[in-house]
Amino acid sequence: MQPPLIVILNGPNLNLLGTRQPHLYGSATLDDVEALCVDTAEEFGLAVDFRQTNAEGELVTWVQECRGRARGIIINPAGYTTTSIALLDALLASDLPVIEVHITNIHRREEFRQHSYVSKAATGVIAGLGVEGYALAMRAMAGIIAEGRA
Ligand code: CA2
């Protein structure tokens, strides 16, 4: 039997991780984050499909494609967190458990970062724990799937 697939989606500018603003986002690159997620997936008997895009429409399409294919979505929507009703609608329509991850604690940053449309579709939100938040989200998703709750 195939391990349950978790799709991990990353929004705009996260391709710059580890190359700029390390005081905010740390020194790990997006490739490092993918490796962390692959390792964590192995630990919990999951498979991962890890992606990043700068395009809102592509993110929406990828969420739509999760239906019937994936068992859960972990998403760092980055700049689309606070703007994208289209992304929220796609996540709601996916009927999958969603965990929202932010590397930084958006609640202690500028006010404009503190409202999330995506949270309306999220089972849980992890913010402020650096890239380790992705591994914690994987662990939480493994529990959600094992217990059959969403
Ligand atoms: O804390 C997070 O993970 C954010 O989702 C990151 C977004 C920001 O718009 C959100 O408010 C919080 C920004 C992603 C840009 O990432 C960069 C990484 C390194 C260098 C430059 C940008």
Automatic annotation (TrEMBL):
<keyword id="KW-0057">Aromatic amino acid biosynthesis</keyword>
<dbReference type="GO" id="GO:0009423">
    <property type="term" value="P:chorismate biosynthetic process"/>
</dbReference>
<dbReference type="GO" id="GO:0003855">
    <property type="term" value="F:3-dehydroquinate dehydratase activity"/>
</dbReference>
<dbReference type="InterPro" id="IPR018509">
    <property type="entry name" value="DHquinase_II_CS"/>
</dbReference>
<dbReference type="InterPro" id="IPR036441">
    <property type="entry name" value="DHquinase_II_sf"/>
</dbReference>
<dbReference type="Pfam" id="PF01220">
    <property type="entry name" value="DHquinase_II"/>
</dbReference>
<feature type="site" description="Transition state stabilizer">
    <location>
        <position position="20"/>
    </location>
</feature>
<keyword id="KW-0456">Lyase</keyword>
<protein>
    <recommendedName>
        <fullName>3-dehydroquinate dehydratase</fullName>
        <ecNumber>4.2.1.10</ecNumber>
    </recommendedName>
</protein>
<feature type="binding site">
    <location>
        <begin position="103"/>
        <end position="104"/>
    </location>
    <ligand>
        <name>substrate</name>
    </ligand>
</feature>
<feature type="binding site">
    <location>
        <position position="76"/>
    </location>
    <ligand>
        <name>substrate</name>
    </ligand>
</feature>
<comment type="similarity">
    <text>Belongs to the type-II 3-dehydroquinase family.</text>
</comment>
<feature type="binding site">
    <location>
        <position position="113"/>
    </location>
    <ligand>
        <name>substrate</name>
    </ligand>
</feature>
<feature type="active site" description="Proton donor">
    <location>
        <position position="102"/>
    </location>
</feature>
<feature type="binding site">
    <location>
        <position position="89"/>
    </location>
    <ligand>
        <name>substrate</name>
    </ligand>
</feature>
<comment type="function">
    <text>Catalyzes a trans-dehydration via an enolate intermediate.</text>
</comment>
<dbReference type="GO" id="GO:0008652">
    <property type="term" value="P:amino acid biosynthetic process"/>
</dbReference>
<feature type="active site" description="Proton acceptor">
    <location>
        <position position="25"/>
    </location>
</feature>
<comment type="pathway">
    <text>Metabolic intermediate biosynthesis; chorismate biosynthesis; chorismate from D-erythrose 4-phosphate and phosphoenolpyruvate: step 3/7.</text>
</comment>
<keyword id="KW-0028">Amino-acid biosynthesis</keyword>
<comment type="subunit">
    <text>Homododecamer.</text>
</comment>
<dbReference type="GO" id="GO:0009073">
    <property type="term" value="P:aromatic amino acid family biosynthetic process"/>
</dbReference>
<dbReference type="InterPro" id="IPR001874">
    <property type="entry name" value="DHquinase_II"/>
</dbReference>
<dbReference type="GO" id="GO:0019631">
    <property type="term" value="P:quinate catabolic process"/>
</dbReference>
